[in-house]
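Predict the 3D structure for this chain.
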Amino acid sequence: MKISCLFLAATIGIICTVSSAGAESLSNHSKEDSVSLLARPKTTQEVKIEKVLSLSLKQALEIAEQNNQQLQIAKQQLKASQIALRASQGSLLPTLNFSAGVSYQKLASLDYIDSQITNTANELGEIGQLAVKALSDTSLRNLTTSYVSPITATLLLNYNLDVSGARSISIESVAKQVQISQLEVKRQSEDIRLATISDYLTLQETDTLVTIAKAALSNAQEILDDAKNLYAAKVGTNLDVLRTEVLVANNNEDLSLSQSLQLNARRRMVQRLNLPETVTVKTTDAVKLAGNWNLSLDESIVEAYKNRLELDQIILQEDIFKDQEKLALLSLSPQVNLFGSVSALNILNSNPNPGINNGYAIGAAVTWNLYDGGVAQAQADLQAQNEIINQTRFSQTRSEIRTQVEQSYNDLQSNLVNIETSQVARKRAKEALRLSRMGFSAGVVTQLNTTTAQTDLTKAETNYLRALINYNRAFYSLERAVSNTRVNN
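Done. Predicted structure below.
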């Protein structure tokens, strides 16, 4: 794996990036290091963090796309709906059935005939006996034996003419369900993308907050050293030293809190990417503006109405309910089946054996459910009610989409202003701290002014970072709210 490092100015620090060769291994990381899904770690070594992965946003999105279990479920459901479509399309073709059988039977009817012949012969005396003997030497006697071994075979061809059109409607309904499943895979992918980006932005924020806190602590420590030196030279006061020590303590608390938030954000990202628990992650992308949104609010709302997959899914579901309503009523329509069959028969113990006898049949059958107690109408009414519910859901979803677009757009514009304001404040805070420290060393500026300048700089750095992060968060949320629109960053 090739690793390169970027040195960023001022408070950003050092970031290591993973090359594309390493990115390929990351996508298979969970397969290589994962333990059984039913296993529970029993030793501390099994839960100890052993690897730190440096990820870009692009790499994180690729891993999330591959490892997310909810997305895999959606893809499997899509395959299931495609199989169901193939099954329903099979009804367009005729069915062909073959059956065959062989048996050994003792027939009561033939046994009765055989007994009657014997009794009649006995009543006729010697002449009857001669007649029975003559009969036993012929095939007629063999045909009247009560023991038979027939072998039969039948080939049946059947086809439903679908005179009502129910079959076509049913296939169309299943095809629409496949489309809904396809859209669901895309929708899940969009949601996973936004959730991964959100976690990545949070991790970027906590990483940079740690860097800011470390820089603030380092500056505070230098101010404390200057205050102690001035106090030792009897130029400064003990009050100056105490105030600076409070500043150092506060910065230590800020650093500890930032590090805790960083660890939590890393664990959430590991969970989001479905990586092994012995792995942690860190970001490689620098915090910068995600892009410019070139659509107005009204244009964004219109684009969202046009592109959002949720609305398309509801419309397709509406069509399915209408299809089901039609099918319920068509169950009372006549059904016409065409059939044709050929059959063969042979009596194995017939003597002499006449061989195989053939037969055939061809015809049509009509079935018509004239009355079902109102079941079909009730089922149709149920689907009609589902249509009304679905239309209400469409209106609700459309309202939610507009709210999402408006909130994201307003947040975007607000944070764009905050970026410009905080950027100016950040520059001025840096310059104010530089001048305060120079004046404090020269004894013309009080220590209070210096500590205040350091606090102002830390706040300005934090405000600038959060304005950037919040802008990017609003930008990607607006992208998701408008759905298929991808802005060229």
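The radius of gyration is 42 Å.
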